[in-house]
Amino acid sequence: MIVWSTIEASCPICSNRTRLREVGSGFVQGQDSDLLVRMGGKHIIQAEIHTCNKCRFSGYASDFVRTISPPARTRFIEEVAPTLVDDPGSTTSRGLSPQKTPLPDVQYHWAARTAEALGLPACEQADRWVRAYWCLRLAPSSYVADALKKSLKKLYLTRAISRLRQGLRSDRDRNRVFLVGELSRRNNNFLMASHYLRRFVERENGAPYLKAAALKLLELSQKRVSQDLTLEEVLYGAKPGKAKPGNSTPDVRPRGGTPGDMG
Known about the structure:
Layout: E1 2-10, E2 17-26, E3 28-31, E4 37-39, H1 44-48, E5 50-51, E6 58-59, H2 70-80, H3 104-118, H4 122-135, H5 146-167, H6 174-186, H7 190-203, H8 208-222, H9 231-236
Antiparallel strand pairs: 1-2, 3-4, 5-6
């Protein structure tokens, strides 16, 4: 369950009136090894993304109050918007009932393309690609056929890793180092995964529980294991929602500079 309020704003590209959600809070039930915070019901990240139904400009509520120059608006409408198509992965091709608003993973895909068109920093672009990947395990995006989900997972992971690595040249956020390592492991790039996970363990001053997780994930990378896991499974061998007694779920913020930022 999440709590939000609704406001209206004009799309900064085409001035179309768009309803935006201001998210208040949610209830955390655990965390996956790629830092996705698990929640019951609709996930907070699905409420945070918005798309203009007219020009397909996509992003967070804050993106809809940006000041965009006339040349940039023209360039978006003429060069970017026509390429933002819900295919593959349209509601029709996924076997779902057509709906006016694209599925959340598609919206984040479009938001990443929007961020690129606006020249936002690489880490902000990465944030959107990571969330597109996260949405593949959240309903309704999780209902897609396995073959399509596999191709989308590859696309989102590859783009997220690339943008995160670019961002690390100027942004030294310790969680991003961990995230590059774990996303690389899930993407079957075990050499890169080992490099970044080892770097996180040896050089980054991260949270102790993340360092413990990085050590275990490093072992999995060296064994060429790409299995998706929760942090409970990595740290304690426990199933989701059944963390080892005496160990509470880490306090996390679903929204922030880094996906899954620990604060």
